[in-house]
Amino acid sequence: MAVINTAPPRGTRDFPPEEMRLRTWLFGHFREVARQFAFEEYDAPVLETEALYVRKAGEEITGQLYNFEDKGGRKVALRPEMTPSLARLVLAKGRSLPMPIRWFSIPQCWRYERMTRGRKREHFQWNMDIFGVPGVAAEAELLAAIATFFGRLGLTSADVGIRVSSRGVLHAVLTEKLGVPDEHFAAVCVLVDKLEKLPREAIEKDLAELGLAGSLVDEIIATLSLRTLDDLGGVLGEEHPVVLDLRSLFSLAEAYGVADWLVFDASVVRGLAYYTGVVFEAFDRGATLRAICGGGRYDRLLSTFGGDDVPACGFGFGDVVIVELLKDKGLLPTLSAAVDDVVFSFSEDLRPAAMSVAARLRASGRSVDLVLEKKKAKWAFKYADRSGAARMVLVAPDEWERGMVKIKELATGEQREVLLEELV
Question: Could you report the per-residue pLDDT of 327-353, keeping only the tens digit for each?
């Protein structure tokens, strides 16, 4: 037989124990921040109906689906993001679901896309979403959660920032000032999100296919160059609802104590068509990595699936980019296996005794590694050091006859004899 290729499929990852420890550590921080902000965890199938994601022509996500027909002829896809699944859940529960809801999840997501540093074809994504709150207080809560998470990892606002804008900025300029039909706005936003990835000629061609003049690009670029709320107020007027919302959001961020993480940047649009208001992206201030996370308001999401709209906002935070950033900053922890005790018997005859000792320790809640092979004590001590255990529990003939075991604290080298009854 041919030798099997031991590499995982391109763009995916294995998680051997040392990598799994890091993933568990990271997810622990995701969950703890969500708990602090009183969010409840949910999940959904990794396999969904393909139609859930095929919403608007031109969205990159449509061409990046891992999609196929199942054996029943149904068109399905591995989920590329969690928000549509969340929308399906909310619609399924209908009016029985009390608002507001504060839910979070850590799903595995799949996109067949070009890989770069921090971008793979599968990743895990921490999602936090709020349904039922129409004002920017919900966005402020989410931004505070993101800043809290960064702080837990040892990152500061000097390392990371969060760019904030609103889809309303571009909407006001395009529809109110330039007369772009409202039905083309979402498609234009998708194109705007590609400005840095595609040549100008390609953007102009796509605009022409929408029946819009290529000269719009100049107006769009001028709008996206706005970098202060004062500049925005000068363009739209200080009393424009978009300006008032953004000023309110930044004021709430001050109250949370996270304003130093935020910067206004009109170039943040987000490429998914369902966003309707405030949008944001966390970024590496060192400018070496792609966006760390992103999200925004999507008040009209449910109607795209045939339901009644509910005010909603949320974010997605991938696990790949943040690990790269922590590596760059020297903030990745050194994690060892969580073993409390290694139990070792000095002879085969004492193996049953060692098993009874291990069972007693495990019943008390300790993590116990029992040496199962016939090994010498020297090997066992090295093994315990390598596994990061706190103690060696030695079952030796003389001590066992007296109803005792010997315990060695591996950090200090201290040894003592303990009665079996007092072991735990």
Answer: 999 999 999 888 999 999 999 999 999
Asked if 162 and 261 touch (Cβ cutoff 8 Å), the reply is yes
Tokens encoding 94: 């209908």
Q: Are 393 and 343 in contact (CB under 8 A)?
A: yes
CA distance 130 to 136: 11
Mean pLDDT calculated for residue range 304-329: 95
The model's pTM is: 0.90
The order of strands in the sheet holding 75-78 is 47-49, 75-78, 66-69
- Domain end point (choices 304, 329, 354): 329
The answer to whether residue 145 sits within a structural domain is: yes
Residue ending a domain, among 329, 352, 370, is 329
Task: Give the CATH number, domain containing residue 93.
Answer: 3.30.930.10
Shared domain for 370 and 295, answered yes or no, is no
Let me know: does 150 contact 325? Beta carbons within 8 Å. no
Is residue 131 located within the same domain as residue 234? yes
The angle at the Cα of 179, spanning 299 to 203, to the nearest 5 degrees, equals: 80
- Quote the number of domains for the chain: 2
Of 283, 272, 50, whose CA–CA distance to 161 is shortest? 283
Cβ atoms of 12 and 122 within 8 Å: the answer is yes
**Tens-place pLDDT, residues 65-94:** 999 999 999 999 999 999 999 999 999 998
Residue 361 near residue 343, CB atoms below 8 Å:
yes
